[in-house]
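QA checklist item 7 of 12: single-chain prediction sanity check.
[x] sequence parsed
[x] length recorded as 856
[x] structure emitted
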Amino acid sequence: MKKSKTKQDKLLSRRMFIGRAAAGTTLLAMAPVYNLLAKDFTEVIPWPANSDAYKFHMIGHAHIDPVWLWPWTEGVSIVHSTFQAALDRMNERDDFCFISSSAQFYHWVAQNDPEMMKKIKKRVDEGRWNIVGGWWVEPDVNIPGGEAMVRQGLYGQLTFQHLFGRRAKVAFNPDSFGHTGTLPQILKKQGMDHYIFMRPGPHEKMLPADLFWWEGADGTKVLTYRIQQSYNDTRMTGERIKKVVEYATEQPMKSLMYYYGAGDHGGGATKENIKSIEELKVEKGAPQMVYSTPERYFDEINNDKILDLPIVKDDLQHHAPGCYSVESAIKKGNRQSEAALITAEKVVTIGSHGWGAHYPKEELTTAWQRVLFLQFHDSMAGTSLVEHSETAKEGYGFALDTANQAAYLAIQKLEWQIASEDPESEYLVVFNPHAWEVKGNIEYDFNWNEQHNGSRVEDENGNPLQHQWTAGSTETGSRKKLIIKASVPAMGYRQIRLHDGDSGMKKTGVKAEENRIENEFYRLSFSSNGTLSIFDKETGKEIFEGGQAGCKAVIIDDPSDTWSHGVETFDKEIGHFSRADIKILENGLVRATTRVTTSYGNSTLSIDWSLSAGSRKIEAKVTLDWHERLKMLKFSFPVDVESPVPTYETSYGHIIREANGDEDPGQRWIDLAGHKGEQTCGLTVFNDAKYGYSVHGNDMRVSVVRSAVYAHHRPRVLDMNTEHSWMDQGIQTFKMMLLPHSGTWKENQVARTAEEFMAPALSIYQGIHDGSLPKSASLLSVDNPDVIVTAVKKSENGEDTIIRLVETSGSTVSATLDMKFINRKWTGNFGPFEIKTLRINKKGTIKEVNLLEEEV
């Protein structure tokens, strides 16, 4: 037993060394590792025993960060010079091979240097220049949503096909800071059966081997390789390879990949690299070394019928967990842009069939590609320059404007074709971008002065709709906000009419008074420190342990760098927001709202809490004016349940994690459920801008903000006597929604609620005119609440219609899609988390296709 333990300790030690050697991001960040390795360079270390039993595929590579410690314009130049260097090495040696990812890079070259592109294509055709990755860039793969990950491959692979007549077979993302467990299915359906990554390293996540089958949440498997040491090596390669050989004795394979070449700021394989490789080849006891590519490596592995590789069923975390929560503007811009583009595509696609709307394909593609570029890992993670953050805001503004112009102009064309006959009335047309009926509040500012004889709001059949008036967005004139409680048909529209008259409404159960709001279902009360109590009237129980303990704004001591290297949890509490000022903002028949304002240090937090009549959703608009440094803000929700189980939404899926306090990435919602007595119950928290979460026991937390310094990387120590560029200072806004539930989150249709939360119905003001279209219609619907229609768009090639559906509960289900806008129906069976993409031609023929919109 003692000997076995010693062997395990040695293995762990080697893994820690390899992992830490790979942890640096640039020469500056790798300085401690290089200093350590430099001692090895002064003495000749013999090859470990049996080294000659191993084979190394030597991969010439240049990791290129198009943005990081430099602006994107410098990144364009780095790409050009790096590609030229690779061509030079190929001219010098007939056997030299090179790899590069990122369709964006090749797109730049094709635009700026067509002659270079011809030379690259020649080398690609020879098999010496290997295109890897298949994506638009090497993105963060925790923060982008599922549809964005689909578009990374769609635009990336089609660009490679256009430029080279071929596509990437190997997905390649070594520098991303973690990898969501839903990726295997997405990769496979983008034509890639293999994946290469480096982070998390062995010191961050123990894996049974560095070559393994990665099994996704849906059961799809891709053969996956974790890079040892680093994706960069600018020095003589010998000593590092010896370290990898020593480590490889515990691996199931005898064939490995070794990456060499200058990177981050580009550069590629150096002459010194190649010289050292040639010298190593003839050393006694050395392993076999061949210039190679990832494609050749995986071909060799796939042909080894004896090799028995382990299966990993998990996401690949954790590296740099501070990246989930730093640089709030980029995180919010990404979430908002993704939702706006998806909504716009749905509206204009349906509209192009239903009422002749224009489909701006080129503009939408360009907007998507801009968002995809900004998902590059150092951009999306918020670890780049402050100057890039300004560029990112411009990019998201462009994407949002493109999406909103497309969507609203399409609905405007719809509005012009619906009659609105009464010049004494005001009209809205409201469009629902979801494939099920949506019920909720619709808001619009009208000119409505005191001369009107009351107000009556009706649907297209004259039925009265509950409504209330509240303060508008301007203090000038008689414009004020109308809040209407209404439903809108599935992926369709409804006309709403406002005119003088009796409202036809009855008094409801929503009201606000002093520090309390309540409706039929809940009573919310607020403490003097601004924390929240939710009393469930149906169960007679509090949602939070301790009563008024919900949404506590907790301050965490956070001296870590921008990435939070070496951090697993943020748990050192040093204070909280307090001294609440409570003010009632709305108190009507539809909605009641109370503003709770608190402070901490130099910062102010204001949350507008709202309850609506007949609704179980608790809404919150958050305004944070943040002026703290080296601190973190988390919202705490101590859900009063036993045996708590946290569930995080991921990109086109969800994952259950341990309630151990670790900082974890998630998408739009997190849920904590357990038992109260014999009853299953819990709480789901939604937000429209945040990605970092943690759960310790029954305390579920949303990470709101971190105040690090821009691009501060350990071991650099901050001199607090000098000036620094501090992140996330000033005012930021976002929305939250709380959904207490009996039963499980699945039974409460949380997936649908998240869609409605991020993409509310769109409203257009109508003028007075004739029209021939019906005043209400449903144009597309799906009958199973576990199946979400996530995309409706035109095909990238041709004019066919693409519809994407995703199973969201992790169950085996059947669903029927009713495409009224083309008079077609389709029924299909879904496995857990399965993504299905349909392609419908002009004749109405429906075919299932992959994520590249091609028949399987």
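[x] summary fact logged: The two ends are 52 Å apart (CA to CA).
[ ] second reviewer sign-off
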